[in-house]
Design goal:
The chain is an alpha+beta fold. The protein has eight helices and eight strands; from the N terminus they run βαββαββαββαβαααα.
């Protein structure tokens, strides 16, 4: 089983209006698609769950103006981030690139991350043959950048493998400004200033990042795992 980390760049005419908004507005600092249901339906309706770090008022104004969106439910996390549950009609522009996945035994691993360069980044898992077929079937108008490909083994991903790009960015900034130094040389507000977000958001990003890294360290290297490996004669 192979995995493929790929970045897809769409032309302007193919962009969803909210992708256009992300590219042209300073209001959205980060957005990712967490989960979705795009199974074939008689009325061609699909459902998606997004996580966004953005200015809420301009974001809501933008989403209200999208004709394909039938309804949405926005749930605030703090002053700077929220979830958005969306019901929308399937767009013909999206059908075009999704056809590259049709009839192939592929799985997209969430999240799908959107950026301001009119691109979205995803990890796809399947056979090497199906992954090649998917790349070859994408519309010519889409520029494709393959960042990585190889054997999929989630156990052997880096310690940072559970982190979102935004969480990893927050950790990198925290290291740079001295947040993790002993004694501490900078606070959460300094990290927030560098990230361009509220202090509460920076704190949440760092807390979630640290929690995920610690859980992964314990799962991979913790005492109980070491004792189990000794019991079955595995090298530790």
């Amino acid at each position: 089983m192979k995995y493929l980390n790929v970045r897809l760049f769409q032309p302007d005419w193919m962009l969803h209006p909210m992708q256009q908004f992300i590219r042209e507005s300073e209001a959205v600092r980060y957005e990712e698609l967490r989960s979705w249901n795009i199974a074939a339906r008689e009325d061609d309706v699909e459902y998606e769950l997004f996580y966004a770090e953005a200015d809420r008022e301009p974001y809501e104004a933008a989403i209200e103006s999208v004709e394909s969106i039938r309804w949405y439910d926005l749930t605030p996390i703090d002053d700077d981030s929220f979830y958005v549950y969306v019901c929308q009609e399937t767009r013909e522009e999206d059908v075009r690139w999704r056809e590259a996945f049709a009839a192939l035994n592929l799985v997209v691993i969430p999240p799908v991350i959107y950026d301001r360069e009119a691109a979205f980044y995803m990890t796809v898992v399947g056979t090497g043959e199906d992954l090649r077929a998917m790349l070859e079937s994408l519309p010519e108008e889409i520029d494709v950048t393959v960042d990585a490909i190889g054997e999929y083994d989630r156990r052997h991903t880096p310690v940072s493998g559970d982190l979102t790009d935004r969480q990893l960015e927050a950790v990198e900034v925290a290291v740079d400004v001295g947040y993790f130094e002993v004694p501490r040389e900078a606070g959460v507000s300094d990290v927030a200033d560098e990230l361009g977000c509220a202090s509460s958001t920076a704190a949440t990003l760092l807390q979630k990042a640290q929690a995920r890294v610690m859980r992964r360290l314990v799962r991979r290297y913790g005492r109980e795992k070491t004792e189990r490996d000794h019991a079955v004669g595995k090298p530790v």
